[in-house]
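Appendix B. One record, verbatim.
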Amino acid sequence: MQVTRELFDDVMVPNYAPSAIIPVRGKGSRVWDQNDKEFIDFAGGIAVNCLGHCHPALVQALTEQGQKLWHLSNVMTNEPALRLAQKLTQLTFAEKVYFANSGAEANEAALKLARRWALDVYGAQKSQIISFNKSFHGRTFFTVTVGGQAAYSDGFGPKPGDIAHADYNDLAGLEALMSDKTCAVMLEPLQGEGGIISPSADFIKGVRALCDKHNALMIFDEVQTGVGRTGAMYAYQNLGVTPDILTTAKALGGGFPIGAMLTTTEIAKHLKIGTHGSTYGGNPLACAVAEAVLDVVSNDDVLRGVVKREAFFREGLQRINDKYHAFAEIRGKGLLLGAALNEKYKGQAKAFLVAAAEHGLMCLIAGADVVRFTPSLVIPEQDIELGLQRFEMAVAQVVKG
């Protein structure tokens, strides 16, 4: 059977518009399509493939566990899930872990837990959830409504209630919304989809202080920033604040679907038996792969390497910009970076992405004005160099029209 891009239009729901490229294999930070054209991967499956493609440790974990046990119901527990949960608690503030299959599901669990905690401890009036404009927390109806992009939540009928939005980095705006009726504030410790926006130190510490003042939970959505992406195991560890609940997914499985919600024993006790669940959450296959991911990424050399690679990326992007003057600034932290387009090229991020693909480079966008890079955390320096050469050709093509 010949598989072509046209087949997508025949058989798939039209909610995506994938490019004409169909990748068929990958190794490290390189990918090859059906025509054997090679791409350097600066996209990492949207910050998912944190160890690139077919990393030996992940392939080994997957094949070994694949010979033993794939799935059990939650009527029983399993060894990989328990080992993974223990490692997550050792690496973070958390004492308790809940497993799901995705970031949206981890966030759904976090929001349900926050509401249940508030109801149990303070009563029904404490139900307000606040998040931030341009934030992204998933596509379930609850998480998409909490996310700060109405375009994603409009058009599906009545939305879950008692959800408010402030502007990111605007502490006064948040303070004006908060009261003792606020049960939780959810935020990304670096906004991803919203344009690669870093928090100011005052803002992030101020959110923590406001949550403490109003007895509200601080929920960190670390779906994109977690598992080494910013150079710390989790981004909160470099920000001087500790959340009450943290969600993690994307890179946690290195490409295999898994998500987790982490919290304290005191808060976790409100999700008692029967209050929440997931058929596949915590399955042995996903947990075995995620355990291998954590074993590799939690190594100090890997985390230090992320910081080193960030500097390499920034220098290269700056060199390109000195020549072509397309970017207003390079944003982000670690290997979650964004080239924000200047006034002249505003709204054209997609054009840079398309041109990059023509020159054999996979990258991303974050909104219409930012070209986003989320490569493997262990991408070799020669692949960064070659990828930046290809990106420069793409920039030249767009700039010269």
